[in-house]
Fold:
Amino acid sequence: MNTYLISIFSNRLVEDEIDKIIKGKNNVIYFNYDDTDIDNIIEECAYFSLLNDEKIVIVRNFKLNSASKALDKYLDNINPNTRLVLLVNNIDKRSSLYKRIKKEGTVIEITELKPNELINKVNNYCKSINVKIDYVALQELISFNINNYDLILNDIDKISIVTNNITHEDVIKFAFKLDEEDNFGFSDAIISKKYDSILSGYNLFIRKKQEVIPFLALLASQFRIILAVKEIKENDDFIAKTLNIHPYRVKLAREKSYNYSKDDILNVLLLLCDLDKNLKSLNVNQYSLLESFLINFLAI
Structure:
């Protein structure tokens, strides 16, 4: 079956997977599941082109929900000339569609990179764009961006406009530094729904002119760990080893998990996805968008 289900942990890593799938192909069609319905996607997949060439249909923001079950009928009689790629923010392994694609197609679960993997991926990216980066500079970038691959590459793209030989001094001068202590405190207040702390954290966030996108990545990673604690019925050490994180982060996530149902967490992650999309596509003040997210989040 030419059907792929890919979970999104990192936009950059997802794009790497997509590049592998579409390499050498010209007939590529994109859908945003938020802006269409499953019938349109199925119709496009089933359609045979006049030239009978291979077609790749990529669906962003796909949801494993009741509406997506209509895809089962298409999978019973797929178009052999169509490769269907479904990009999801979270995989529900209880879903019948997930089980079917796992058995008959390809499931790719993109997870957080291990330290050595992160360093190798960043070095390979630098080579691909003809940029040199020294070891100290790379370690500082990783520290500044709290091991977030997407944010590290964003900084490299920004600094490479100035120089193609990135040093520690360049990182200090040009890279964005996530204020780790303040932002962990702000994210903890949000997750714990401490209203007074959220307000003071929000005001401090604005006064320090912090960037919302890196903070969003931090908050999303916290909720993903909480979701993992809900889903993986194992002890903290096992989960920490599986996710390649410190056991203390799992312990904190478990404490927070009692305040949320699985549906609550999935709804929060969807709100974060919407915030990410709006930050990148709308010409709206980033702090206004963050405030809107907080209002919707507190209503959950």
